[in-house]
Specification:
The two termini are about 15 Å apart. By secondary structure, the protein is α/β, with parallel strands linked by helices. Helix content is about 30%, strand content about 15%. Helix 1 packs parallel to helix 2 and helix 3 packs across helix 4. The chain contains five helices and eight strands. Helix 2 links the parallel strand 2 and strand 3. Strands 1-2-3 form a three-stranded parallel sheet. Strands 4-5-6 form a three-stranded parallel sheet, with helices on one face. The longest helix is centred in the middle third of the chain and has 17 residues. The protein is globular and about 45 Å long.
């Protein structure tokens, strides 16, 4: 039953803002564009009329564990926002070894590929691993994207937050059939606003 309220997991630390003109907003982002997004999350989008996002990596699209462009199109048509999860999902590297021109080029390349496929929210970057915690990556993102969302932080973002270092709550992992993944019960605990 939809009560019109969101159940926030007890592990989320949050602060109520009394001066707020607009109600708080919750965004749910699933990383990587795995096939489970289409089978498990898209039905939630349709049932709850909830705008859940999928952050996809162009170089992984169509590989065995990942959605194809046709499946991403279906998710997008169902109401999913398709965000950019970099061009090639880099692992964290030492900050002094970062080639900022290459990082910026790959960010732009990933966004442009997704934009050519008609995904209008692809100008939002979801950093991979902990790369979003580094100011050098944030600077590269600022040259390409509208904003950048990092993993973790588990804090509320305020209007004066650095828009290239937006924090997000990370749901607990749970075992799925073939891999470690998000906890479906945790996800189901959220309700439409």
């Amino acid at each position: 039953e939809n009560t019109g309220k969101i159940a926030i997991p007890s592990t989320v630390k949050y602060t109520l803002i009394k001066k707020r003109d607009n109600p708080p907003m919750l965004t749910i982002i699933d990383d990587d564009g795995d096939k489970h997004f289409r089978t498990d999350i898209v039905p939630l989008i349709l049932r709850l009329n909830a705008p859940i996002s999928s952050a996809v990596t162009p170089t992984n699209i169509g590989k065995s564990a990942f959605m194809t462009y046709e499946q991403i199109d279906e998710a997008n048509d169902a109401g999913a926002e398709i965000l950019c999860h970099t061009y090639d999902h880099p692992d964290e590297i030492e900050e002094e070894n970062i080639d900022t021109l290459e990082v910026t080029h790959k960010y732009r390349r990933g966004m442009n590929i997704l934009k050519r496929h008609g995904y209008h929210a692809c100008d939002i970057l979801v950093y991979t691993s902990s790369t979003g915690t580094y100011p050098i990556y944030q600077n590269c993102a600022s040259k390409v994207f509208r904003c950048g969302i990092r993993i973790g932080g588990e804090v509320i973002n305020y209007p004066d937050s650095n828009k290239f270092s937006l924090a997000r709550y990370r749901m607990d992992y749970a075992q799925s059939e073939n891999r470690t993944d998000w906890n479906m019960d945790d996800l189901k605990s959220f309700r439409q606003l």
